[in-house]
């Protein structure tokens, strides 16, 4: 499928690689599957917009992989499956907490240095490990213009405003 431009991928089986390998030209991608199912790395050289489900197991490892393999990524949205069009009963609206340590990219990904301009996180859960992800993106995304963070308990969100940023024109919008 070399001409696929937009794809919504909700994988329930053990080997998503074949499906993902068939999407080399995708520009807009919504992913919902466990990072534990991914056994090798596939590059997304044309990907511009990514929605990543943060309610799947190991989503934080999937995030690292996508940042490392999507050099032109401009928009990153972390959300829960309930927001996706394929949503069915039983999916949670909560972000799964990070178990163990979040493995940051080994070096600052190209997308953060040159392309990412919008970062959205719906249902941000205010945990320290998740804050580490926001801090990493703010600190390294040099072209970042807008960060949208949404969570019902906005008191703790205010501490995100004071995090260091690579982009002096970046606005953090919370609701």
From TrEMBL:
Taxonomy, superkingdom: Eukaryota
Ranges where the FBD domain occurs: 110-175
Family matches, as PANTHER family: F-BOX DOMAIN-CONTAINING PROTEIN, F-BOX/RNI SUPERFAMILY PROTEIN-RELATED
Protein name stated in the entry: FBD domain-containing protein
Organism: Microthlaspi erraticum
């Amino acid at each position: 499928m070399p001409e696929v431009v937009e794809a919504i991928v909700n994988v329930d089986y053990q080997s998503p690689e074949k499906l993902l390998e068939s999407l080399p030209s995708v520009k807009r991608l919504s992913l919902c599957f466990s990072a534990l199912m991914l056994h090798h790395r596939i590059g997304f050289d044309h990907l511009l917009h990514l929605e990543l489900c943060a309610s799947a197991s190991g989503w934080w490892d999937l995030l690292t992989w996508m940042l490392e393999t999507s050099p032109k990524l401009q928009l990153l949205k972390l959300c829960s499956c309930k927001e996706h069009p394929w949503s069915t009963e039983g999916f949670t609206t909560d972000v799964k907490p990070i178990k163990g340590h979040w493995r940051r990219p080994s070096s600052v990904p190209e997308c953060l240095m040159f392309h990412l301009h919008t970062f959205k996180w719906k249902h941000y859960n205010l945990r320290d490990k998740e804050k580490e992800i926001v801090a990493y993106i703010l600190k390294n995304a040099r072209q970042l213009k807008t960060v949208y963070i949404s969570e019902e308990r906005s008191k703790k969100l205010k501490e995100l405003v004071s995090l260091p940023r690579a982009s002096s024109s970046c606005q953090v919008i919370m609701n």
